Amino acid sequence: MTAATDSAVGRRAPELSGQTVVVIGGSAGIGFETARRARGEGADVILAARDPDRLRRAASELGVRGTAAFDATDWPALDRFFTELPDTVDHIMVTGPGPYYAPLSELERGRAHRNFDDNLWLPIAIAQHAVGRVRDGGTLLFMGGTGGRARGAGLSLIAAGTAALSALVANLATEVAPIRVNLIAAGFVDTPLSASLLGEGLEARRDQLRATLPIRRVVGPADIAALAVHLMTNSAVTGATYDIDGGQQLVAHA
Questions:
Q1: Of 4, 17, 34, 251, which alpha carbon lies 20 to 30 A from 49's?
Q2: How many degrees, rounded to 5, is the angle at CA 253 between CA 247 and CA 254?
Q3: β-strands 134-145, 44-49: how paired?
Q4: Along the chain (254 residues), what's the average pLDDT of each consecutive run of 10 residues?
Q5: Alpha-carbon span 122 to 73, nearest angstrom
Q6: Taking the model in full, what pTM does it have?
């Protein structure tokens, strides 16, 4: 590579300059890293999350355009949030809610019902609000997972939800076109949420993944953020599910 090429690379224009990115669930982990990367690419960012204190710290660190503290599955609150958004935004990313795993013998029907509904109704609600608010060619980006593609005790609910979410995203892409709609399906991601769920078992899980994954490292929030921003900027992609798990599905018991 020549000095002239080096200089040209260094002068690459930010890919989201002048655009507005909304991240719902953006105060930590994947959402926060996506917001950080979007800011690095020149975007104005609006952050939303449930925890006001954590949201305030994230907003201060990133220098965002605006914030809103609310639970995205509180439908009246979600309605108010969209009412208060700027007239036009370019991209919306939603990182939650997470899955609920339980074997049938222990499954709490009420909790399972709420989790299944929330994971499917939230993308529908976002898509309804997006029409007339997200610019043509802009993006709706949702988070799912790859764990529900396995079969075993405790996976019945998440298996059904995983299949349904991919089908939903593909169809939403036709209903709200030319807004684009895509799904990121992640495996294990080393986030604060993962740490809280695994507790003392976190380091053992990391070691296991480093030893077994084809990439020989653990997937982190920055990896997901890189894919998210790519999907925002690549205007040829819509209606698809993009796996990012370091090859976890290729390795038995990973």
A1: 17
A2: 35
A3: unpaired
A4: 50 91 96 97 97 96 96 96 94 86 83 85 96 97 86 79 93 98 94 81 92 95 97 97 94 72
A5: 7
A6: 0.90
